[in-house]
Design goal:
The chain is α+β, with helices and mostly antiparallel strands and 268 residues long.
């Protein structure tokens, strides 16, 4: 009985899977919208954003401005959004003008739309529609760009528009690999810095120890005895001094040293 039940469930799952895989996206219902309606809406978005781009380009030219000097924030201001509502232009279309202009600056103006590339994808609570646009520069070089509209699946409300250059699987893998290398490098650098900071903490106890040892060496040094230097003043023998003075007086007076007596000497 259990085996039969398991086989029955397996067959049911397989049938559901095959049914889902075999559903024609053009015949599917997208929460009240058909494939054709979403395709028409996509073409309208491309057309409206292209016209908004032309309006911005004309404004820049008339005011002798450089394209990079144009303030795109005014495109999504409340005043601009309200004024464009009467023309059927929504906020998402206004916000996408800057991306469109950036694409034009890099790859040239829109040349054609590949209607056959239109696809619808549903993942969880998000549904997206995509189409390939081809922009061409003055040299005739063509670049594929993916135009995507993002919806909330439960009410099919548009939440955003993205316009990005097409990237091959190789380019995506290269970019992903580069991002991985950069991320890992940043992590390693941060770890090295943290390691150096932690190692630096070991220096402080060493410096403190050296300071204490130096202080101990200074306190243990023997006291230097101050030896008072006594100046030895050689005193001249008074008798010799008297004899010299007496001889000088005798020579000066032309007499003998016995003719007079030196009683005192005044030192100055």
């Amino acid at each position: 009985m259990k085996k039969k039940l398991a086989l029955l469930l397996g067959a049911l799952v397989a049938a559901i899977t095959l049914t889902a895989c075999g559903t024609d996206p053009k015949e599917a219902d997208y929460n009240g919208k058909t494939y054709q309606e979403l395709e028409t809406e996509m073409n309208q978005y491309v057309s409206v954003i292209g016209m908004l781009h032309s309006s911005v380009a004309s404004f820049v030219e008339q005011n002798n401005m450089k394209p990079e000097d144009f303030d795109y924030s005014q495109m999504t201001s409340e005043e601009t959004i309200e004024s464009y509502k009467s023309y059927g232009v929504n906020e998402q279309e206004l916000a996408a003008v800057e991306s469109w202009d950036n694409i034009v600056a890099q790859y040239g103006e829109l040349d054609r739309t590949d209607a056959e590339s239109f696809t619808i994808n549903k993942a969880g609570n998000t549904t997206t529609t995509d189409i390939s646009l081809y922009f061409k520069n003055e040299d005739g070089v063509e670049k594929e760009v993916i135009f995507e509209i993002v919806y909330k699946s439960w009410n099919m409300e548009v939440t955003g528009v993205t316009i990005e250059p097409y990237k091959s699987l190789t380019e995506k893998m290269t970019k992903a690999g580069l991002n991985t290398v950069i991320s890992m490098s940043v992590v390693f650098v941060v770890l090295i810095v943290i390691s150096l900071i932690i190692s630096a903490f070991n220096i402080f106890p060493y410096l403190e120890k050296r300071k204490k040892e130096k202080a101990q060496q200074v306190s243990a040094a023997p006291a230097v005895e101050t030896v008072a230097t006594t100046e030895v003043v050689e005193e001249t023998d008074d008798l010799e001094l008297v004899a010299v003075i007496a001889a000088a007086i005798a020579a000066s007076e032309g007499c003998s040293t016995s003719d007079f007596v030196v009683r005192s000497i005044n030192r100055r």
